[in-house]
Amino acid sequence: MYAGDIMTVDVNLAGLPALVLPCGFVKDGTASLPVGFQMTGAAFDEVGLFS
């Protein structure tokens, strides 16, 4: 959870909405790690980001 917060807090403090969606997995040795896709919208335009 902490690593995900690091990647989204800065844009949210700037007033930019950010949306992170899970988009798959990658192999790392023997583990399968989740990968996320982050989208950043225009300032204070959450509706535009969601649509």
UniProtKB/TrEMBL annotation:
Keyword Signal: no
Protein name, as recorded: Glutaminyl-tRNA synthase (Glutamine-hydrolyzing)
Superkingdom to which the source organism belongs: Eukaryota
Matching Pfam families: Amidase
Positions of the Amidase domain: 1-49
InterPro entries in alphabetical order: Amidase_dom (IPR023631), AS_sf (IPR036928)
Gene Ontology MF annotations: glutaminyl-tRNA synthase (glutamine-hydrolyzing) activity
Source organism: Helianthus annuus (Common sunflower)
Enzyme type, top EC level: ligase
Enzyme Commission number(s) of this protein: 6.3.5.7
Keywords: Ligase
